[in-house]
TrEMBL record:
PROSITE patterns: ABC_TRANSPORTER_1, ABC_TRANSPORTER_2. SMART domains: AAA. InterPro entries: AAA+_ATPase, ABC_branched_ATPase_LivF/BraG, ABC_transporter-like_ATP-bd, ABC_transporter-like_CS, BCAA_Transport_ATP-bd_LivF, P-loop_NTPase. The keyword Plastid does not apply. Belongs to the ABC transporter superfamily. Gene3D superfamilies: P-loop containing nucleotide triphosphate hydrolases. SUPFAM superfamilies: P-loop containing nucleoside triphosphate hydrolases. Pfam families: ABC_tran (PF00005). The lineage of its organism: Bacteria, Pseudomonadati, Pseudomonadota, Alphaproteobacteria, Hyphomicrobiales. One of its GO terms (biological process) is L-amino acid transport. One of its GO terms (molecular function) is ATP binding. This is General L-amino acid ABC transporter ATP-binding protein. Keywords: Amino-acid transport, ATP-binding, Nucleotide-binding, Transport.
């Protein structure tokens, strides 16, 4: 098997003296959708932020395309074409939709800007209608689309999505998940997805990991974990949510 695009090995992350991640091992191969599920406070977002270098892992290592990025500053990691749509969206509320997308494209010197904007607008037609509107005036679903669109403007090799369905209506969530699937199937984009919506994430994913109190306790295909009685009891409440 070829080497993983992203390889997280034995990573421990601390906030002061509090250990948030305990020896986490995760692999993401090129062209996959891999999800990380777990309860609130399990350390899912911490792992995403550690991959991006803020905070840095205290022990263990993180490799991207075979290169050790464990101690690399965040801006250098971004230049390797790892893009993140963070939890809580964190768009620029005073900037227009178009200006937010420009911010995402700045690493690429804007040379593909027009072409990439059209791709984002094709994926999320609502953003095209709202392109002159300030980000802060958009609905929650539109802001999530903008957050993902902004990350895509960096032409990522790896897209990190942190809780893209959080606080959104089921119909909007369905549209977001369909867009992720489309990006993966049509563009071959590799996606690492952190989600509390375990049913939606596992259904979408090639493979998945379960994180409990900062440790990976289980891994397998999305299909296998969907059928796993422990996973169903802990995260799916007997079905979906």
């Amino acid at each position: 098997m070829t080497a993983p695009l992203l390889n997280v090995k034995g990573v421990e992350t601390y906030y002061g003296n509090i250990r948030a991640l305990s020896g986490v091992d995760v692999e993401v191969h090129r062209g996959e959708i891999v999800s990380l599920i777990g309860a609130n406070g399990a350390g899912k977002s911490t792992l995403m932020m550690t991959i991006c270098g803020k905070p840095q892992a205290r022990t263990g290592s993180i490799f991207f395309e075979g290169q050790d990025i464990t101690r690399m500053p965040t801006h250098q990691i971004a230049r390797l074409r790892i893009a993140q749509s963070p939890e809580g969206r964190r768009i620029f509320p005073r900037m227009t939709v178009l200006e937010n997308l420009q911010m995402g494209a700045s690493l690429d010197d804007l040379k593909h800007f027009k072409e990439d904007v059209e791709k984002v607008f094709a994926l999320f037609p609502r953003l095209k209608e709202r392109q002159a509107q300030r980000g802060g005036t958009l609905s929650g679903g539109e802001q999530q689309m903008l957050s993902i669109g902004r990350a895509l403007m960096a032409r990522p090799k790896l897209l990190l999505l942190d809780e893209p369905s959080l606080g959104l209506a089921p119909l909007i969530v369905k549209g977001i998940f369909e867009a992720i699937k489309k990006l993966n199937k049509q563009e071959g984009l590799t996606v690492f997805l952190v989600e509390q919506n375990a049913f939606g994430a596992l259904k979408l994913s090639d493979r998945a990991y379960v994180l409990v109190n900062g440790r990976v306790t289980m891994s397998g295909t999305g299909k296998d974990l969907l059928a796993n009685p422990e996973v169903r009891a802990a995260y799916l409440e007997g079905g979906r949510h």
